[in-house]
Design a protein that fits this description.
The protein contains three helices and six strands; from the N terminus they run αααββββββ. It is an alpha+beta fold. The protein folds into two domains: about 60 residues; about 110 residues, Nucleotide Exchange Factor Grpe, Chain A, domain 2, CATH 2.30.22.10. The protein has a three-stranded antiparallel β-sheet. A three-stranded mixed β-sheet has the order 2-6-3, with no helix packed on it. Helix 2 packs antiparallel against helix 3. Its main location: cytoplasm.
C-alpha cells in the first residue's frame, strides 16, 4: 500500500488560490485578446478608410485630368478646322494681288467689257474666300503704325509733321483668317 501524503488545509487553499488566479489570468488574457482584436479591427478599418480616401482622390484627379484633356483636344480640333485651309488661303493671296494689279491696268484701257469681266471673276473669288473666313486687314495711308499688325518695308522722312509715326503708303494688303493674321500688311511709314 502506498501512502498518500495527507493534504493539509493550506495545500488545498493554495490549490484553490492557484486555480482562481489561473482563471483570473485566463479571463484577463481573453479580455486583453479581445481588446487587441478590437484595436486591430479598428486600426484595420482606419487603414482601409485611408486607402479608400487615397484611391478616391486618385480617381477624382484622373477624372479631372481626362476632362481637361477632352476640352483641350476639342478646342484644338476647332482651331484646326478654322485654319485647315490656311495653306490654300496663303497660296491664293498672290492671285488676289494679281487681280488688284490687273484691275488698275485694265481700268486705264478703253475696253470696259474686259474690265467688267475681270471684276466679276475677282469679286467671285473674293466672296468664296471671305465665305471661308478670309478677311482683309483694313490699312490706309494716315493710319497709326502698329508693329504687331503691320510689316514695315521701309521708313522714310515724313512728308508732313502729321504723318510722323503714321503709315505713308500701303505696298501690299494684309489678310487674316478668323482671328489669326496670315499675312501682315506691308507698309511704308514716316519717321
Amino acid at each position: 500500500m502506498s501512502k498518500k501524503p495527507k493534504e493539509t488545509k493550506s495545500t488545498v487553499e493554495d490549490k484553490d488560490t492557484t486555480q482562481v488566479q489561473d482563471q483570473a489570468q485566463q479571463v484577463n488574457g481573453e479580455q486583453a485578446a479581445g481588446k487587441e482584436e478590437a484595436v486591430t479591427e479598428v486600426s484595420e478599418t482606419d487603414g482601409l478608410k485611408e486607402d479608400l480616401a487615397k484611391e478616391k482622390d486618385k480617381f477624382l484627379r484622373l477624372f479631372a485630368e481626362f476632362e481637361n484633356y477632352k476640352k483641350r483636344t476639342s478646342k484644338e480640333r476647332i482651331e484646326l478646322f478654322k485654319t485647315a485651309g490656311q495653306d490654300v488661303m496663303q497660296a491664293m493671296l498672290p492671285v488676289l494681288d494679281d487681280f488688284d494689279r490687273a484691275m488698275v491696268e485694265i481700268a486705264k484701257s478703253e475696253d470696259k467689257e474686259l474690265l467688267k469681266g475681270v471684276e466679276l471673276i475677282s469679286n467671285k473669288l473674293r466672296n468664296v474666300l471671305e465665305g471661308k473666313g478670309l478677311e482683309v486687314i483694313e490699312t490706309k495711308a494716315g493710319d497709326t503704325f502698329d508693329a504687331e499688325v503691320h510689316d514695315a518695308v521701309t521708313q522714310i522722312p515724313a512728308p508732313s509733321d502729321d504723318l510722323k509715326g503714321k503709315i505713308v503708303d500701303v505696298i501690299e494688303k494684309g489678310y487674316k483668317l478668323g482671328d489669326k493674321i496670315i499675312r501682315h500688311p506691308k507698309v511704308v511709314f514716316g519717321q
